[in-house]
Input
Amino acid sequence: MTDPEDQARLARLQEIRDGMETLRIEALAERGGKTFTTEETLELIRRHDDAADTVGRLGPE
Output
């Protein structure tokens, strides 16, 4: 079983990850002086991540 300090660290890391994702969404939403809805921004992030995954799979062999 994990001790309370480890659990607290893991909870804090999750909070930090969530905060970073929020900042990423906000930064993408403000790109080019345009404002996007949350749904539009999440779709943009999904497309970006999908493209990065594809490039990673097609990388140098």
